[in-house]
Amino acid sequence: MSLPEKTEKGESLSPTPSNVGQVTDAYAHDAVFGEITEDGPNYRNVGWLGTAVLMMKTQIGLGVLSIPVAFDALGIVPGVIVLIAIATITTWSDYIIGVFKIRHREVYGIDDVGEMLLGKAGRIIMGTAFVLWWMFTAGSGMLGISIGLNAVSDHAVCTAVYVAIAFIVAFVLGSIQTLGRISWIAWVGLSCILTAILVVTVAVGIEDRPASAPTTGVWVSDYKIVNSSESFSKAISAVTTIVFAYAGTPAFFSIASEMRDPRQYNRALFLCQGVVTGFYIVVGVVIYYYCGSYVSSPALGSAGKTVKKVSYGFALPGLIASTLLFVHITGKYIFIRILQGSRHLVANTMIHWSVWLGCTFGVSLAAYIIASAIPVFSDLVSLVGALLGTPMCFHPMAGMWLYDNWSRPNRNWKWTAMVAWCVFVLVSGTFLMIAGTYGSVVSIIDDYKASGGSAAWSCADNSAS
């Protein structure tokens, strides 16, 4: 979406198909942000390519680091099938967000959708789930940063200190006011994380054996085409780990709201999903094929010690970019809900800055506590993907399609097929949420009981796995 142009009488035009792509220095009225002026931040300044990069950065970063481990639990063929299935469902969900945003320009977040579907209770439920989801995801990001710092420094200081450093960095950078100003960081972060993963992918094919494999004797990868030996809890946790890798979906509402031209949303979306899916399949298959059951979580530790340092050195900017984006999006959501309708939302006043920094600090602090309390990366990723990611990526979008199309007069076979698809999305999402949460909780309990389990606020090296 672009800023509506100012008429000769000084009135601001609402976006229409004829003026939606125009940009002007005059003031504008936005359905979400209200009056946007030169005295405050321009919340409508992200182009389609910047949108695609922001979309990719909400997905590529944390989730991809656990895909080879998920393939280990499922086997290569089931892993790829599950990944493609989840990619299909989430791409459809993302598409529905763009369609719904065009039809209902006042929608900023998933809580607006909740109120349209279920009333005030829906707003409270979906809004709370959204905030918790991104806080947990930001916590995963801080944990990933601490792993990277441990890897490149040979565990020079206590891990709890590294998590605290991640908290400070995420708060400072996440407090940049608009996504337009953050997009360049997303570019850098995306380039770095892709480079890091490609380094590991190439290295595992060259190295004699993965880092955690036995150091003596002939070693042959024990990868499985289909892994039927894992328990149900491990298998379903692997599925929800893949869900996590695609669970940037709830953030697409916020990203779409800051676009200059919403008509280019689909262009950005399909570029994002195509790159993400292709990259996930290649990385997951290649790393698991060469490492087998000795694949590390996160996957950047799968090659030798030197490659591990190099890959994490590249990955750190990417992990930081992901985490600050999670903090920013969550803080922005709370910020808008507090100041929406007030002049302080779009003006650089003392109240504006106090509320904004309070929101980003609160989100960062909550994420820090989560990262310190559940210090096992793969377990945290799986839990978040199951408990919060699935209902954020599946259920609302099915409800959105039904909301806009249930009363259509021409109920032909296409309409019937789409209703059946929405029911499938709702049922499969509910199953994954319940079963995946159970599997993740069982896995977390097992890890804490095992000798290798890490304690909360631990100083232990979390990059050793």
From TrEMBL:
InterPro entries documented for this protein: AA_transpt_TM
Compartment(s) of residence: Membrane
Keyword terms, alphabetized: Membrane, Transmembrane, Transmembrane helix
Transmembrane segments: 46-67, 73-97, 124-147, 159-177, 184-206, 235-256, 268-290, 310-329, 350-374, 380-403, 415-438
Bilayer topology: Multi-pass membrane protein
Annotated ranges, domain Amino acid transporter transmembrane: 46-441
Keyword Transmembrane helix (UniProt): yes
Cellular-component GO terms for this entry: membrane
Segments of this protein annotated with the region Disordered: 1-20
Main subcellular localisation: membrane
Biased composition (Basic and acidic residues): 1-11
Gene3D superfamilies to which the protein is assigned, alphabetical: Amino acid/polyamine transporter I
GO MF annotations in UniProt: L-amino acid transmembrane transporter activity
Family: Belongs to the amino acid/polyamine transporter 2 family.
Protein name per the record: Amino acid transporter transmembrane domain-containing protein
Organism: Penicillium angulare
